[in-house]
Amino acid sequence: MDMLAMLEDHWWWLIFAALLGIGEVLLPGVFLIWIAIAAAITGLAALALPIGVPLQFLIFALLCLIAVWGGRRWYAANPVSSEDPLLNDRTARLIGEVVTVVEAIDNGRGRVKVGDGVWSCRGPEAPAGARVRIVGADASVLQVELA
């Protein structure tokens, strides 16, 4: 008898759950674990109940939806702390830096040099070459004050 044919349906679900769990460990993204839980519960249901493969897939699909929905709710209520919470907020990371005005700030608008780039800014009148401190941002326009 073929080795693959000897494995019952529930074992396939449990093996799939284990592979997804390993995938979560190797490629952490906090997503595969929810699918692994759905596969494990489907495997346990197939072991305990005499259900056919089409119903197993339906159970798996429903459990995936419930598990992902529950996981998203849980992570929304319990956010993961980060060592660098401003990692993806470039303008917030700039607050407090002192930069140089490259186009004079006239009528509250001008441009400043930040690193190797030039950003639009709003703030008090300042000539080109003046030093200003970044105090905020509105989208990609920096708010500055005299340093």
From TrEMBL:
Keywords: Membrane, Transmembrane, Transmembrane helix. InterPro entries: Membrane_assoc_protease, NA-bd_OB-fold, NfeD-like_C. Its main location: membrane. Residues 92-145 form the NfeD-like C-terminal domain. It is a multi-pass membrane protein. One of its GO terms (cellular component) is plasma membrane. It comes from the Bacteria. Pfam families: NfeD (PF01957). The chain crosses the membrane at residues 12-41, 47-69. It is found in: Membrane. The keyword Transcription does not apply. This is NfeD-like C-terminal domain-containing protein. It comes from Sphingobium baderi. The lineage of its organism: Bacteria, Pseudomonadati, Pseudomonadota, Alphaproteobacteria, Sphingomonadales.
